[in-house]
Amino acid sequence: MKYRSVIAARRGGPEVLQVVENELRAPEAGEVRVRVLAASVTLPEVEARYGRSPFPPRVPFTPGYAVVGVVDAAGAGVRQAKPGDRVAALTVYGGYSEMVYRPEKDLIPVPAGLDPAQVVPLILNYIVAYQCLHRSAKVRAGQSALVIGASGGIGTAFLQLGRLAGLTLYGLASGSKHAALADYGARLIDYRTQDFVSVIRQLEPGGLDAVFDGIGGEYLRRGFSLLKRGGVWVGYANPRSLSGMFQLLGRVLWLNALPNGRAVKLYGTGASFIDRRPFLEDWAALFRLLAEGEIAPVIAARFPLLEAAQANALLESGRVTGNLVLLAPELL
Questions:
Q1: What tens-digit pLDDT sequence spans the chain (332 residues)?
Q2: How many angstroms separate the CA atoms of 200 and 206, rounded?
Q3: Across-strand partners of 33?
Q4: E-strand spans in the chain?
Q5: Residue 107 and residue 105: Cα distance in Å, rounded?
């Protein structure tokens, strides 16, 4: 038997994504085979395809950072996962596929009854926003925060979760996307036509408690300048090269050494492979919020699982507000 997946055959744009067939094999000891119901389409996958990463994957490779699926088979020694269980995984690579193989320890239990299309944005985009808010910045109700890049999958997660946390929120997004974001209660600033630093200094003369930056570059300097004493800038953008990573680390060390009471922190999901407990706790909290209707991921478009090239092209167009998801045929 065979199953299909999407590979990036070489470096380049969405046109390098191709559908290939693979031999279906039995899972190895400690491994679980998962039939994919939903996969996310996110910026890290685009950057990996172009090779814009400190440690880019070798081509060919299968992109796909996060999946939700159902256990199809379990290898020897697997203790908890059993066929039919609903699970998710932060795959980093490999998600654009009808089947994925993961060690049992990498699986995230997903409550039955939740829509996989709504769950899959929680596995990457919402965990980033949730942990930046509550573990990195440790926000409190009544504080103020700026979201740089407010219209994407992570940005809209920040707006929803920040409102739940009782924050006064400001968000940078192009003017064409403001209408779609209007219901989240944030003060939106068009970065193309407005100087966000001047706008926020007028509205928050005492400074902000937190800045969440998914873009980086000069936004680090400008966002950091808006913090009050005791404020924190949290960056979650992936550096595009090894030299860029070292430059960013150098800037972080320098800014944290300044005697101004402000802090810079970097966030990454790589810690989930070292200490799973905080991540499992926070994913469980997000699943509860979804089940209770407190959050509702914005799904800009849904594509068949193997139409990843079309989904990637839409993401790169800059016209997306919220999340793009790939879905198994029965969910379309």
A1: 999 999 999 999 999 999 999 999 999 999 999 999 999 999 999 999 999 999 999 999 999 999 999 999 999 999 999 999 999 999 999 999 999 999 999 999 999 999 999 999 999 999 999 999 999 999 999 999 999 999 999 999 999 999 999 999 999 999 999 998 988 889 999 999 999 999 999 999 999 999 999 999 899 999 999 999 999 999 999 888 999 999 999 999 999 999 999 999 999 998 888 899 999 999 999 999 999 999 999 999 999 999 999 999 999 999 999 999 999 999 99
A2: 10
A3: 73, 101
A4: 2-8, 17-23, 31-41, 66-74, 86-90, 99-103, 107-109, 144-148, 168-172, 187-189, 208-213, 227-235, 263-266, 299-304, 323-327
A5: 6
Query: Are 145 and 208 a contacting pair, CB within 8 Å?
Result: yes
Domain boundaries, the chain: 2-110+298-331, 124-270
In this structure, what token pair is assigned to residue 102? Answer: 């993961």
From the options 3.30.1330.10, 3.40.190.10, 3.40.50.970, 3.40.50.720, give the CATH code of 124-270. 3.40.50.720
pTM for the whole structure: 0.96
Name every residue whose Cβ is closer than 8 Å to that of residue 210 and which is 6 or more positions away in sequence. Answer: 133, 137, 139, 143, 144, 145, 146, 227, 231, 232, 233, 234
> Check: CATH 1.25.40.10 for 2-110+298-331?
no
